[in-house]
Amino acid sequence: MEIDLRNKIIEAVRVLYNSEVPDHLIQIQDTRKEFRGDFTLVVFPLLRYSLNTPENTGAAIGNFLQSELPHVSGFNVIKGFLNIEISDRWWVEYFAGLAKEKDLYAKCRSVKPETILVEYSSPNTNKPLHLGHIRNNLLGFSLYRILSSCGHRVIKTNIVNDRGIHICKSMLAWLKYSGGETPESSGMKGDHLVGKYYVMFEQEYKKQAEELISSGMNETEARNSAPLMAEARDMLLKWENGDREVVDLWKMMNSWVYKGFDETYKMLGVDFDKIYYESETYLTGRDIVLEGLRKNVLYKHDDNSIWVDLTAQGLDHKLLLRSDGTAVYMTQDLGTAVARQNDFHFDKTLYVVGNEQNYHFQVLRALMKKIGYTWADGLIHYSYGMVELPEGRMKSREGTVVDADDLVSEMKETARSVSMELGKLSEFSGDEKEEIFMKIGLGALKYYILKVDPHKNMTFNPAESIDFNGNTGPFIQYTYARIKSVFRKAEQSGLKPDPSGARSALPGPKEIDLVKLLRKYSDIVTEAAETYSPALIANYCYDLAREFNQFYHDFSILGEEDPSLRNFRLLLSHVTSQVLSSGMWLLGIDMPERM
Q: Is 101 exposed, middle or buried (0-12, 13-18, 19+ CB in 10 A)?
């Protein structure tokens, strides 16, 4: 319909005003909810041809469309906007075609397929994944599915921060205080055990610094002079020099962490095509930095540290190698980017990293272009806001983070409690209940996080997210399960929807409203891919579920006596369930068949 309207509007300008209007000036959008109409033409760009008021121009074009297109049933002009009404018969014809489609987002319109890397998770091997990592993983995995659905070649990548002073802190604390404790001897997941010693290091380090401050040192001197920190720096140097004992300890503790991470990733339902390790990519980065120094693109300080001058790019001077030769994060990211380009020849890399790193990625892009990597313009920082709990921000060093494993477990238990209180699932077996509780709990967690504009900070409230009413994952899941229940009853009655009979129905306004909303799905997915926003799909799914529930409340489906209308409503329910399932799948959310 949009194509027909566009062509007729161009023809209208030609006939009415004897002018050829370029296609880009024909701006058609969905009519806003507060006005009557289905499509809206923005009239203002056409006034140069009509030499008339917006109201008169809109009316003239509206009359032309109504006389030339049989499915334009009416129009109204509000200031500079022509709201065009499409007949119910056209919507029935449209739905009849939609009901026969198998791939409901096949119409997703990407400009051209690209190779896109999505980097997400990026954990440190000194602590378990926490709530912030959950938002990161859910955003990255959903972006992968959305972009893939639009025809892009998408590679899921992870960069593990497995080296550096923070890793040495956990290692040193374990050597000093653990007594040889292991995941097996303690019964703790490996990532939790290593995180325990990271917190212990910070606690002991803080005590040492406070003692030095009380003896007369200022805070900066005290923190730099604390014996624990000096030992950690010494351990880092030993690691970079390949000291066997330090490297063996590093390998052992990292293996504990990786096993723990894998369990968490599996529980969240996310995975990766390629995992990079900073312990490897920093070497590539260091070689690139040394080559840049030889070419005088970079410069060396008197203390032998190596820097880049980015003041011409509106940034500052950035350290790339310390005076002792050890690498910084920037050097590692430089090496990782080059390794990925060599591996995949990507058009874009999306770094799913919190907004506190905005400046870091500006520097990375400018540094790489200065060195000579022209493809660095394809490095995109997908900057997202922080996630907090109602009681405030979490701090890893103080051990006040909410571990991902604990949160998922809590979400499952909350789903159990709410479901039992509402009397749902009473007829299911024990194993069935456990599976559904997990789907509801994870669905609530994922949806609550993904429905928020990714650029905004958010507060996650576990209890709020489980509500079976309102803009929540369980509400959408329950709507889907409700439709599946209708179809089980229809099957028992020998009823099966027939797409070929859709055109014979005479649906009312409520059914037509649902059809109009279903039409928007492919456009929503396209926009989500273009703007990297899973929130658009999440909120669309809620709008669709809410619209269906209103329809379900007001009208009978199986009890409808008119066979053609009953068939239409069954088809409408079926397509709605397909779109809800598809949309939630793009968010990484499983839909229970029964609830």
A: middle
pLDDT confidence tier of residue 365, bands split at 50, 70 and 90: very high
How is the chain split into domains, by residue range?
A: 2-86, 120-388, 407-586
- Is the domain spanning 2-86 CATH 3.30.70.270? The answer is no
Two tokens, residue 320: 């790339």
Tell me the DSSP string of 273-325: SEEEEHHHHHHHHHHHHHHHHHTTSSEE-TTS-EEEE-GGGT--EEEEE-TTS
pLDDT tier at 73, thresholds 50, 70, 90: very high
Give dist(CA 203, CA 398) in Å, integer. Answer: 8
Contact indicator for 153, 114 with CB cutoff of 8 Å: yes
The amino acid at residue 396 is S
Q: How far apart are CA 400 and CA 357, in angstroms?
A: 22
How is domain 407-586 classified at the CATH fold level?
Isoleucyl-tRNA Synthetase; Domain 1 (1.10.730)
In this prediction the pTM is 0.91
User: Would you say residue 396 has pLDDT above 50?
Assistant: no
Given this chain, do its domains 2-86 and 120-388 carry the same CATH topology? no
How does DSSP classify residue 363?
A: H
Q: Which spans in 345-403 are helix H?
A: 358-371
- Transcribe 492-509 into DSSP letters: HTT----GGGGGG----H
Tokens standing for residue 99:
């009901």
Topology of 120-388 in CATH?
Answer: Rossmann fold (3.40.50)
Pairwise CA distance, residues 50 & 9, whole Å: 13
Task: State the Rg of the chain over Cα.
Answer: 29
| Cα–Cα dist 288/473, whole Å | 47
